[in-house]
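Hi everyone,

Forwarding the result from last night's run.
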Amino acid sequence: MSVQAASVHTELDPQRQQFRQAMAHLGAAVNVITTAGAHGRCGITASAVCSVTDAPPTLLVCLNRSSAMHSVFDGNRQVCINVLPASLESIARHFAGMTGLSMEERFQLPVWDEGENGVPVLRGALASLQGTIVEAKDVGSHAVMFVQTTHIKVRSDGDSLIYFDRNFHRVPRAWKATTPSEG
């Protein structure tokens, strides 16, 4: 479920309400998914992202088909999955539509680099995985997009940002005790 979709309150049948409540208890990494190309430039905050396989490196990203941005992602096919550190919670809020910044203003913030095919890459991301949507399946209200990665950048520092119980939370990197021989 996308973070943005979770904040929308509409009248739902009891089973859908119960499902959404259950999913609120499923903590997940916070990502900003970006695209650019002939169909425009946009980004969304999403927690519905997971690995599929490492041969070839492929991720799964779920996007609500009723979102105006769905057609932009589907048309461009080039994306970047930016895994956010806790220090960039404000970026997550901007791309979830929580702050009132327009899409253009979000990309004017001084945190972006240009990646392959002009796709925005978040400079301070814990990981940035650029790639191509190689397949998409419609499942209910969402499109399940399979992204084969072509360029990966990973940081070795920073705390994680997760979405749990309809809020953002910092998850600190595990502290590693040194043994006397490591000194």
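Residues 4-9 have pLDDT under 50 and may be disordered.

Cheers,
N.
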